TrEMBL record:
Organism for this UniProt entry: Nocardioides abyssi
Listed Gene3D superfamilies: 3.40.630.30
Sequence ranges assigned to domain N-acetyltransferase in this UniProt record: 30-185
Alphabetized InterPro entries for the sequence: Acyl_CoA_acyltransferase (IPR016181), GNAT_dom (IPR000182), Ribosomal_N-acetyltransferase (IPR051908)
Pfam families: Acetyltransf_3
Record's protein name: GNAT family N-acetyltransferase
Length: 189
């Protein structure tokens, strides 16, 4: 079973440079600031304008509900030493029967070009394939998002297909590249 049934206590994961930990109410101002970024608003289905109540709902109700229900595993990414918010990483749509989940992330503008995405994907996928017992992670990226495609490819994900009009972001249909990352010893199916 991918996530422990009871209790679902979010772990803290670190590589000494970044830490993935449960969201805290005090993270809301950082989320609000990060989600004002034009790139985050372009690539992700966040509300525009992004308001304080959106950030508060994300770090408080949404993240707790995801862990409690077992549907997801959202993490705040912070600097391992200073604790400053760097981004968000998480698993969603966890399918316990098949051992599959979607891995998603965003990195705040002030934390880019510091390998935060690469480190976060490695931390969460190691945990997902180890402790959580998953066998497959799907990463859904717009094919024109060159930076995110490079991150998932460096992580070892394999491009499976491009699905036309798979997502709608800010009222626009978007093609999505579906990548798969498999647990070592598993084959891409």
């Amino acid at each position: 079973m991918p996530l422990p049934d009871s209790p679902r206590i979010p772990p803290t994961l670190t590589d000494g440079v970044i830490t993935l930990r449960p969201w805290k109410r005090t993270d809301a101002p950082g989320v609000l600031k990060a989600c004002q970024d034009a790139d985050i608003q372009h690539w992700l289905p966040v509300p525009v304008p992004y308001l304080p109540e959106h950030a508060e709902g994300f770090v408080d109700e949404f993240s707790k509900q995801q862990w409690t229900s077992g549907e997801g595993a959202p993490f705040a990414a912070v600097d391992a030493n200073a604790g400053h918010l760097l981004g968000a990483f998480g698993l969603k749509e966890i399918d316990r029967v098949r051992g599959v989940a979607e891995l998603g992330y965003w990195v705040a503008a002030w934390a880019r070009r510091r390998k935060v995405a690469q480190r976060g994907v490695a931390l969460i996928s190691d945990w997902a394939f180890g402790v959580a017992g998953l066998t497959r992670l799907e990463l859904l990226v717009e094919p024109t998002n060159i930076a995110s495609c490079a991150v998932v490819e460096r992580a070892g994900a394999v491009l499976e297909d491009i699905v036309p009009d798979m997502d709608v972001i800010q009222g626009t249909s978007r093609d999505i590249a579906r990548y798969a990352l498999q647990r070592v010893g598993e084959t891409v199916t």
